[in-house]
């Protein structure tokens, strides 16, 4: 069929058929899930703070909190699950309260509604206060006012406890009750201060300065719990500087255990509650007496041991003095001399006896040895005597012959004999002359002959050869 022959009704019918063929049909849960995914992927909605008025409030038995957050023009459902309630909701929220809800936006798929999942709920206005407190905390942290090096130790035994708080109310009552129970001998000094309101910070700071000058062992500074606005006096620079300037150790005890203030960071010690601060400051008298009794026993044992040790040392010194006295030393010396004399006498007697025995033995041995040697010598002499005689005769004969030859030589070399034979003995003042080299011209010399001496002078010296 050509399109030129279609009527408008036929064309409209054909378009409807084609649209029905191309469309996709989804379930409600798929659509809700898709929308939930879109909201979860939106980074802006993952962490958002929304302010409004609380209505339709329900504290469910499961621990969850359900409510509606509304303003003049719109409303949004809200839920805080039980796991966020302890840390995220610190005040008794009720219908009509102006609050700031911090959390994420999501879809309750079963009901097809979107809502805010609350993680923290604060009274309206506390968000700004919290920001101011956080800014001051960071500033003081950078200044070093929270540094551990400035923390003073809390004395173990405190007898004077200063308290800075309101003069009426549960705080001072709790501190006095705990202190009286733990130690009735502790003195409480109260420096009353206004702990809430515009002038509270100056009042607390002035009370801290007064009690610091009173000579206390420790100061407890605190108040009961409340909202952030109620606790603002303890989140100020004025109170922080006053605590930091105290010479006395300060225990901060502000609010409940979950409340934390700047005063807690500056103080030397933080207590979760005022009653806990009293427990920390006032030592237990019963425990103290028990410790004293224990230490008394230890001291007694130590003293008895020391006395016994000193007695033993004294006895030892007395013995040393006794042993070092002249009389005792003389007695010991005499006893030693007697013992030594006895030992010497016994030793001499023993040695004499031994020596006599040895001498007798040696005498016998020598006598026997001499007899043996004498007999051997006699035999030897008997053997060598003839040879000795023969040898002596031969040596005597040889000696006589040698003496005869020597006498002949001496006789031949005798100058007197030569002079007797006609020779002369020539000499000068220097001695005998044996060469013409010893005589110079005109030198005097002597010539001895057998019957006299001639004194002469050399007129001429002639050398032969």
TrEMBL record:
Native source species: Candidatus Weimeria bifida
Subcellular location: Cytoplasm
Stated name of the protein: Exodeoxyribonuclease 7 large subunit
Record-annotated Exonuclease VII large subunit C-terminal domain positions: 145-457
Reactions the enzyme catalyzes: Exonucleolytic cleavage in either 5'- to 3'- or 3'- to 5'-direction to yield nucleoside 5'-phosphates
CDD domains: ExoVII_LU_OBF (cd04489)
Entry annotated with the keyword Nuclease: yes
Pfam families per record: Exonuc_VII_L, tRNA_anti_2
Keyword vocabulary terms for this entry: Cytoplasm, Exonuclease, Hydrolase, Nuclease
Function as written in the Swiss-Prot or TrEMBL entry: Bidirectionally degrades single-stranded DNA into large acid-insoluble oligonucleotides, which are then degraded further into small acid-soluble oligonucleotides.
One GO term (biological process): DNA catabolic process
Listed Gene3D superfamilies: 2.40.50.1010
Residues covered by the OB-fold nucleic acid binding domain: 26-122
MF terms (GO), sorted A to Z: exodeoxyribonuclease VII activity; nucleic acid binding
Quaternary structure (record): Heterooligomer composed of large and small subunits.
HAMAP family from the UniProt entry: Exonuc_7_L
Family per similarity comment: Belongs to the XseA family.
Superkingdom of origin: Bacteria
EC code: 3.1.11.6
């Amino acid at each position: 069929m050509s399109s030129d022959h279609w009527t408008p009704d036929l064309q409209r019918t054909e378009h409807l058929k084609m649209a029905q063929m191309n469309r996709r049909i989804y379930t409600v849960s798929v659509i809700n899930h898709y929308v939930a995914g879109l909201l979860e992927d939106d980074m802006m909605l993952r962490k958002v703070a929304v302010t409004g008025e609380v209505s339709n409030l329900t504290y469910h038995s499961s621990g969850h909190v359900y409510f509606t957050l509304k303003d003049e023009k719109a409303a949004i459902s809200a839920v805080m699950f039980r796991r966020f309630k302890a840390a995220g909701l610190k005040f008794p929220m009720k219908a009509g309260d102006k609050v700031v809800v911090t959390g994420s936006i999501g879809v309750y798929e079963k009901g097809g509604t979107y809502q805010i999942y609350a993680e923290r709920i604060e009274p309206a206005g506390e968000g700004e206060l919290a920001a101011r407190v956080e800014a001051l905390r960071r500033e003081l942290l950078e200044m070093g006012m929270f540094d551990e090096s400035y923390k003073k130790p809390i004395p173990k035994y405190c007898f004077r406890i200063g308290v800075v708080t309101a003069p009426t109310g549960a705080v001072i009552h709790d501190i006095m009750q705990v202190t009286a129970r733990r130690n009735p001998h502790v003195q409480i000094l109260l420096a009353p201060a206004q702990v809430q309101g515009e002038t509270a910070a100056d009042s607390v700071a002035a009370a801290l300065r007064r009690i610091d000058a009173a000579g206390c062992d420790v100061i407890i500074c605190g108040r009961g719990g409340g909202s952030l606005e109620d606790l603002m006096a303890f989140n100020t620079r004025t109170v922080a500087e006053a605590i930091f300037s105290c010479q006395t150790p300060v225990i901060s005890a502000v609010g409940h255990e979950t409340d934390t203030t700047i005063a807690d960071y500056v103080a030397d010690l933080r207590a979760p509650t005022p009653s806990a601060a009293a427990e920390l400051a006032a030592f237990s008298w019963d425990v103290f007496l028990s410790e004293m009794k224990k230490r008394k026993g230890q001291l007694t044992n130590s003293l008895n041991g020391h006395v016994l040790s000193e007695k033993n040392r004294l006895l030892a010194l007395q013995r040393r003095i006794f042993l070092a006295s002249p009389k005792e030393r003389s007695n010991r010396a005499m006893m030693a001399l007697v013992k030594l004399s006895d030992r010497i006498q016994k030793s001499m007697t023993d040695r004499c006896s031994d020596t006599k025995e040895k001498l007798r033995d040696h005498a016998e041995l020598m006598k026997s040895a001499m007899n043996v040697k004498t007999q051997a010598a006699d035999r030897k002499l008997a053997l060598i005597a003839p040879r000795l005689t023969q040898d002596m005769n031969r040596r005597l004969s040889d000696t006589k012959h040698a003496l005869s030859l020597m006498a002949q030589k001496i006789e031949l070399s005798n100058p007197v004999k030569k002079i007797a034979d006609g020779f002369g003995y020539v000499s000068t003042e220097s001695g005998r002359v044996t060469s013409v080299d010893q005589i110079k011209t005109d030198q005097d010399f002597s010539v001895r002959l057998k019957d006299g001496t001639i004194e002469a002078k050399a007129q001429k010296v002639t050398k032969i050869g």
